[in-house]
Amino acid sequence: MSNFEIVTCDTALCLIGGAAVADIAFAAVLPLVGGFVGVDGGADHLLARDIRPHRVIGDLDSLSDAARTRFADCLWHIAEQDSTDFEKALTRVTAPQVIALGFTGGRMDHALSVLNVMARHPDRTVLLVDADDVSYLAPQGDSIITMPVGARVSLMPLGDVRASVTGVRWAFTDWDLHPTGRNSASNMATGGPVQISAQGPLLVTLPLAHLVEAATNGVRG
Is the model's pTM score more than 0.70? Predict the structure, then answer.
C-alpha cells in the first residue's frame, strides 16, 4: 500500500468511524483534539454534530448522500481494498496522538481488524475510545500511569509479548504473554502508580473515566 500524508495536525487528532458513538465518549474526546477526520461513514457522526472534518478518508462506500454532499470538497477516495478504512486513514495522517472513536461496538470483525492495525503500526500513538473504555499500546520499555484503588487495568497481548506490571492486585514479573495464552485481562489498581514494562504489542485498557490520564501519562515513549 502506498502511503502519503493527507492531514497534519500539531495536536491530537480524532479519527471517527462508522460504529456507534456514545455522547459520553464524544464529549470526553472533544476537548482533547484539534480536529477530526471522518473515516468513511464516520463522517455522518460529524454531520449530525455540525462539525467539519479536515478530510473524509476511505473507500467511501458507507458514506451517506447527505455527508457526501456536505463534505464534497474534503473527500479523499482511496479505492484499493487491500486495507481497511481505518488503516487507510491512520497511515495518511500525522499527529502526535490519534484518538480513534467509532471503531468498536459494531461488527466484531471490524473491531478485531482495528486491533490488528494498531499492532502492525506501533509507531502511531493511538487511543481507541468508546463509551466504556480507552485502550492503547503500552510504550516499549517502562511506562507509568497513576490509577485509583480498584480501577480496572486490563493487559491483553496482541502478539508475542514479555511484560511485567506492579501497582495492581495481581502483579507479575517477566511473563510471556500471547493472544492464545497467558494474559492479565481482569486486573485492578491498588492505588497510585501502575508501572508497566512491555516488549511487544501489549494492549492496555482502562475505564473511559481515565482517558485524560491515558492521554497524558500512559502513552509516552
Answer: yes
